[in-house]
Design a protein that fits this description.
The protein is an all-alpha fold. It has a domain of 48 residues. The protein contains three helices and no strands.
Amino acid sequence: MATITVSIKDEVNNEFREAVRKKLGHGKGTIGKAVEEALQKWMYDDEQRKIAQEAKEMMNKGLYSLKGWKFNRDEIYDRNL
């Protein structure tokens, strides 16, 4: 387990602590749990943005383009008549 010391604005601190109290209560370690959850969400959101950006770049390069591909109704529904 690591210890991180950060400086944040008093207003953000007060709002965060109030939100933690409403969600997790007054128990020992609730601030740490909330900070850990917030950091995990931040990392997840950042990774999702990267994935979306890479997909957008691939689409713009035409890697997943259907240009020139001909298909019929049977192929769409994966049917063989």
